[in-house]
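call fold(seq) -> tokens
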Amino acid sequence: MMVPALLIVKLLTVLGFTEVIALALAPLMAVVGLPQEMGLVWATAMLTNLYTGMVVFFELMGDQQLTVAQVSVLGVMMLLAHALPIEGAVAKLSGIAWRITLPLRIIGGFVLGFITHQVYQFGGWQQQQAVMVWQPEQTSNSFLSWFGDQLAMLISIFFIIMALMFLLRALRWLGIEVLIQKALSPLLNALTIGKEATNVCVIGLTLGLSFGAGLLIDEAKSGKIKPRDVLLSVCFLGLAHSVIEDTILIILLGADIMSILWGRLLFAFVVMIVIARLVKDDSPAALVSDS
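ret:
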């Protein structure tokens, strides 16, 4: 699923589809207190990944003077909605349709951006100029260079997921899985997610959606995780995943950790409580992937 998604994204980027999305997002940027040009940053992150979005942000920052609050608003939007073709394809392979994951992450990103903007405006917080502590490396724009980077990423993902699968089985054999489930049971109980999905949520939260969903696919196919728990797990990881690496990346842009980490987690928790209350049974219609 990831290989064709990567090729399609590359083609869309070459054809200028990113700029089309940015144009559509431009009017929304004012609503969250950002310059229209920042729509290009979010569009790039949504279509490709956080790293590419950060490069575009770096290039635009030469003409912009953003506050910490503004960078934080853009940061939470990027964190919730990035790499959608790739991560959406992985979610679909686990049984969750595009029509569920895309609106959840895009609308969720905009809503959290709006809330974050309003909070900073209300309190007059973090209005000082943001300072970037990161600069992108100079890389080649050739297709060969891009192909090499993507191949290296896919190979690394394959071996990491394979290692995680062995680790998961070892944790079960040693009985450590039960201890982890008990430690996280209050959180999962609040979200009404079954304990069988504990390891998937932990790995997704720490390492990312691709790794978490990779295990989720294996677990879902084995029948160990209920369809409802698959849906809730994927939705939760869509809103809050890779909280270590991704958070650090956005901090390097000059964002406030209170919003991009704790604000994001709180938002994900509240949204998932609502979704969990709405999805009361294993309705097949909620889980059927788009054809």
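The mean pLDDT is 82.
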